[in-house]
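At this stage, I wrote out one protein's amino acid sequence and its backbone structure tokens, and that material follows here:
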Amino acid sequence: MPSNHVAIIGAGSWGSAVAWLLGEKGINTRIWARNADLARAITDDHRNPGYLADIRFAPPVTATDVLAEAVDAAESVILATPSSVLLSVAARLAPLLPHTTPLLVLSKGLDLQSGRPLSEPLTDVLGNAERLAVLSGPNHAEEVSRAMPSATVVASVSNKTACYFQELLATSAFRVYTSPDTLGVQLCGATKNVIAIACGLAVGLGYGDNTTAMLMTRGLAEISRLVIALGGDVRSCMGLAGMGDLIATCTSPHSRNRSFGLELAQGGSLDVYQSRTHMVVEGAVAARTVNALAAALRVELPICSAVLDIVWEGGELGEVIQALSSRELKPEFY
């Protein structure tokens, strides 16, 4: 095991794409996979049969199903699990890592129990907020792993940590910016997934570009109100983690949140979709946490509230749309 390597915790599509990116840079990368067969396939065949199966990892990329082995002597650790299990995995990692090991979170969402941005409970579990960074942006794994030009933002309260991961991940095709606004970047990353479900629902119902544009624009207003209420930097909403990711997630066929909304409008269900795709619909989870947070802060999020009603509370599509359409007329900016 090289003494200088990066550990990636999670072998899903985004974790695999970042592993591919690091491997192409010649960086020793060890993926922690959920089972031994998957780890062997990545190490021996240089492919992940479950996600992005058509990409080939460079030799520096290997995998293991043993968490301690994945992070042993790691220079840094990248967390790429679904948000719903991130804290439980972090609790297992805590005794295995030095207190100063840089950590980068790829998961997007809020903590299901507390409603806080993930970096906050992660700091409770792992300690040392200075070594923690979060990444967000319009980054479909399918495109990043094909070296299509993309950009992202890494946010941390420590400029040193943000710059470390900026340098680690940046390539000629993958441009990385830094930000001190961990709060705003995380709220954008979580809430845009809810808006993407709404856009998928609209497409599934046969509505056109005007409707999608309306939902995205008013969705951005909802994201901005939430960021401001929690003390984040509203400029993040206009950047890669906000507008950039919102555009990609609401319009792309690669977006699981949009495609889930489309299927839901045509009679599908969350359980069936996740079982078929083997992917977590982060926007469905975020619909609960984002709306709970907004209620506590008395922030109005009508689109996010409508998605919560449809996905979790049995709301009938026609009635929810009618309720949205008949809302009181207001100034655009309030």
